[in-house]
């Protein structure tokens, strides 16, 4: 891997990808390591050889597999490039890996959303006058009856008796502190000390690719820590459907298929929580409440529910209602007093995250005279429409992985060095990368920007075709012209670096990347059009458009409009809302009214199924060209 | 011949009106239907297919060209049949059970019709019974199947097996396609052909026709 040397001993026959993964230096993939993408491409050299010197592949190397022949051009293979998921290691070798797995992109939670704090879980210290009790437990008994007097109807958790602490003896006449945790009107924990510690809640967003965790101060609602990690389930495959297959006993999974995938994601959740608590040096006991969001399949896999039904039409979840549970019962290392809710689901491909988005944006209570449209851009784009008069609609549309730069020639996730902004002005191209690191690849926002910029300077025509250098108008600057080249049967535009795809340092846009973006945006555009029609609205009835998704940086409204992701709209009406699902979950963590509202959203939402509709195809094809 | 180039250009541009007009004019001028097809229309489709393979043309262009082609075929078909030129064959097409995605499959249907196949389109969510019934009713010896999800793809093998076991399905040539598939998978599930996109699908079915004719 670049700049880092790694010596690994592995059993012969292990793939390079598995070897690197096992050693904790995972190589990036889009497909999960099944020869379906080219992100794990690596330059193989005989041991000891390094750098750009003439590569000499090791002699034991098997010839390229059919997958490698598909994913890598002849020139690339001749130069020594291979796919790490295909190469079986049988001897010493040095590999240059341009795309190690990126650490998950930071997804920002909005902690400024107003909420009246009325938590369903709280932890507070009360003081009792000590009477110098001799018997253990009496103090606790007195605490409970004092609490009952103050709050009639308060219940005591049955298992609490087993966990009651031995109180430190209170000296006669002196006040003794006791810290009580009350969750959903029930005393779940009691500590015989004054707690200097804050009580925390956590929002956990389980994504197909990454998990994000946010630790929230339950008293103030402030963000105390955040953490993210890749979803271990990616080893079973990158896309949702390969997970569904892997967790289906009747398919390739085998008897404990579901349990294996459940365990993997629960361990990930546990690690995220451990990291969050470590950052603020809090104990597990101080994490009293959790809200989980995620897509429907992640919801089922985490809770241990069968997922077969997602694989086949009508792609319905087994359970849609919100679930209350003890994390301890799901293998999470938290005390039984910690309680959690998983948000309800709206449909097979409109999950608990959509409920979070609706809460965060108040879509169920849209005010004014115009509707609010929210798009959560991923492989499946969730479309939410809040209409004044408390009506809420949703749909999902299949966009493919383009918005996350999946299956894009130089695509990468939003890690350091990902091109995230592209501007073309007066024939000059300026790039911005994440953390201003040297460009390594292009992420979703960069892809949208690059397409918008190349449309603007005429390199891409409105049908989406890349023009050859000789076709460009006479006034086109030489710097634009010389960036166009052709290899492997398709035209390319160099954004950065040498005009050679063999170079590990070049970042370019391929004609096929543009096509994938067109298909993705056409799916969104068609989905939005159909949902609006179903709700009896036109584009003029839509006010604000909110964009959520796993982007490292904010999408810029003028770029969105340039590629025609949505119809014309004043740019000031388009805004990026970060991880709106988590922002909404935070509200429900801090307020039982908001938690109840999550359930109401699920009961009230009107879901529109777009799959298999003839109008969808027509709208999709019409939406493929870019605005002229 | 410049008229053939005009026809080909009409197809490439997806200009249905001019393709229909030119086809009529050529017929009126005494040209044979088979000449118009083989020297004007099909070369146009070939050029577009090549552009599609490089990403230079995309779904809307291909759709428009296929529509123009079909419009011309409406005029030419009766004449071709009358002069003893046989249809390339009947193809039963469908997206497999559990899968509701059909844009790619519809594109394949359009292209096949344009190329002179007769297509029986079962739409989406088609199980083995529906495929078998369609073969029985139509006498088709060619069958195309698509899946867009990894999950529904995993059931394709079973459906193929069932079709092959049925009386009507024995000896039917089956081609498969769809985003999650590749040639290796197609071979594994016992398909006779695999096409990665709509233009390749036409070549694939032409190959299967040849295979049917030389037992």
Structure in words:
The complex is a heterodimer of chains A (628) and B (215). Chain A has 628 residues and is α/β, with parallel strands linked by helices. Chain A has a domain at 16-96: Beta-grasp domain (Ubiquitin-like (UB roll)). Helix content of chain A is 27%, strand content 23%. The longest helix of chain A is centred in the middle third of the chain and has 24 residues, at 257-280. The radius of gyration of chain A is 27 Å and the shape is globular. Chain B has 215 residues and is α/β, with parallel strands linked by helices. Chain B has 2 domains: 2-82, Methionine synthase domain (Methyltransferase, Methionine Synthase (B12-binding Domains), Chain A, domain 1), CATH 1.10.1240; 89-213, Rossmann fold, CATH 3.40.50.280. Chain B has helices at 2-13, 16-28, 33-53, 59-82, 103-114, 128-138, 150-153, 156-165, 183-188, 198-213, and strands spanning 89-95, 117-121, 142-146, 173-177, 193-194. In chain B, helix 5 crosses helix 10 (198-213) and helix 6 (128-138) crosses helix 8. In chain B, strands 2-1-3-4-5 form a 5-stranded parallel sheet, sandwiched between helices. The model of chain B has no long low-confidence stretch (mean pLDDT 94).
């Amino acid at each position: 891997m670049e700049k880092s040397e790694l010596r690994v001993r592995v059993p012969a026959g292990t793939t390079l990808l598995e070897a690197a993964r096992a050693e904790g230096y995972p190589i990036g993939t889009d497909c999960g390591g099944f020869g379906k993408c080219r992100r794990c491409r690596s330059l193989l050299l005989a041991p000891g050889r390094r750098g750009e010197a003439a590569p000499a592949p090791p002699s034991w190397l098997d010839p390229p597999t059919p997958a490698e022949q598909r994913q890598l051009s002849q020139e690339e293979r001749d130069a020594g490039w291979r796919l790490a998921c295909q190469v079986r290691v049988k001897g010493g070798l040095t590999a240059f890996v341009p795309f190690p797995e990126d650490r998950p992109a930071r997804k920002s939670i909005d902690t400024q959303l107003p909420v009246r704090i009325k938590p369903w879980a709280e932890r507070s210290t009360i003081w009792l006058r000590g009477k110098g009790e001799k018997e253990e437990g009496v103090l606790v008994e007195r605490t409970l009856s004092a609490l009952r007097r103050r709050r009639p109807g308060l219940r005591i958790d049955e298992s609490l008796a087993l966990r009651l602490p031995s109180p430190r003896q209170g000296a006669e006449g002196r006040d003794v502190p006791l810290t009580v945790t009350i969750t959903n009107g029930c005393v779940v924990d009691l500590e015989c000390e004054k707690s200097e510690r804050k009580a925390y809640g956590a929002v956990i967003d389980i994504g197909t690719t990454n998990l994000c965790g946010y630790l929230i101060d339950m008293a103030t609602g402030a963000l105390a820590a955040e953490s993210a990690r890749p979803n271990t389930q990616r080893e079973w495959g990158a896309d949702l459907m390969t997970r569904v297959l892997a967790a289906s006993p009747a398919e390739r999974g085998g008897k404990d298929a579901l349990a294996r995938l459940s365990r993997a994601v629960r361990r990930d959740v546990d690690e995220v929580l451990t990291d969050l608590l470590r950052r603020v040096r809090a104990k597990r006991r101080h994490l009293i409440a959790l809200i989980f969001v995620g897509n429907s399949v992640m919801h089922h896999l985490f809770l241990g529910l069968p997922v077969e039904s997602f694989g086949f039409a009508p792609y319905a979840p087994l359970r849609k209602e919100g679930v209350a549970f003890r994390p301890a019962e799901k293998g999470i290392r938290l005390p039984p007093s910690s309680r959690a809710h998983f948000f309800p689901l709206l449909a097979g491909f409109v999950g608990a995250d959509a409920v979070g988005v609706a809460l965060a944006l108040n879509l169920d209570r849209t005010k004014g005279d115009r509707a609010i449209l929210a798009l959560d851009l991923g492989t499946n784009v969730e479309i939410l429409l809040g209409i004044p008069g408390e009506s809420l609609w949703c749909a999902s549309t299949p966009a493919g992985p383009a918005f996350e730069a999946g299956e894009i020639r130089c695509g990468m996730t939003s890690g350091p060095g990902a091109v995230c902004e592209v501007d073309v002005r007066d024939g000059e191209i300026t790039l911005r990368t994440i953390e201003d690191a040297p460009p390594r690849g292009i992420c979703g926002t960069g892809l949208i920007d690059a397409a918008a910029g190349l449309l603007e300077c005429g390199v891409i025509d409105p049908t989406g075709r890349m023009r050859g250098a000789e076709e460009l108008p006479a006034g086109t600057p030489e710097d634009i012209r010389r960036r166009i080249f052709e290899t492997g049967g398709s035209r390319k535009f160099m954004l950065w670096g040498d005009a050679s795809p063999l170079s590990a340092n070049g970042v370019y846009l391929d004609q096929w990347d543009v096509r994938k973006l067109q298909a993705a945006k056409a799916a969104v555009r068609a989905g939005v059009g159909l949902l609006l029609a179903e709700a009896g609205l036109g584009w003029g009835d839509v006010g604000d458009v909110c964009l959520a998704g796993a982007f490292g940086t904010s999408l810029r409204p003028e770029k969105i409009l340039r590629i025609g992701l949505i119809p014309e709209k004043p740019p000031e009406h388009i805004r990026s809302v970060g991880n709106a699902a988590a922002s909404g979950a935070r509200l429900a963590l801090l307020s039982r009214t908001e938690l109840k509202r999550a359930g109401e959203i699920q009961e009230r939402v009107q879901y529109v199924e777009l799959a298999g509709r003839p109008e969808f195809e027509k709208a999709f094809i019409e939406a493929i060209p870019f605005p002229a | 011949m410049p008229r053939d180039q005009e026809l080909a250009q009409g197809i490439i541009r997806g200009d249905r009106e001019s393709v229909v007009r030119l086809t009529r004019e050529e017929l009126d001028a005494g040209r044979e239907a088979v000449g118009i097809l083989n020297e004007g229309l099909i070369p146009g489709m070939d050029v577009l297919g090549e552009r599609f393979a490089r990403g230079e043309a995309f779904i809307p262009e291909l759709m428009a060209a296929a529509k123009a082609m079909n419009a011309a075929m409406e005029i030419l078909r009766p004449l071709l049949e009358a002069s003893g030129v046989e249809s390339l064959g009947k193809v039963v097409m469908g997206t497999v059970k559990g899968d509701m995605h059909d844009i790619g499959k519809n594109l394949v249907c359009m292209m096949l019709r344009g190329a002179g196949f007769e297509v029986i389109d079962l739409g989406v969510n088609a199980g083995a019974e529906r495929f078998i019934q369609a073969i029985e009713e139509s006498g088709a010896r060619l069958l195309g199947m698509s899946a867009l999800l990894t999950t529904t793809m995993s059931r394709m093998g079973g459906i193929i097996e069932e079709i092959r076991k049925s009386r009507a399905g024995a000896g039917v040539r089956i081609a498969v396609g769809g985003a999650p598939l590749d040639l290796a998978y197609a071979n594994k599930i016992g398909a006779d052909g695999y096409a990665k996109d709509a233009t390749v699908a036409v070549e694939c079915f032409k190959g299967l026709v040849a295979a049917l004719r030389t037992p």
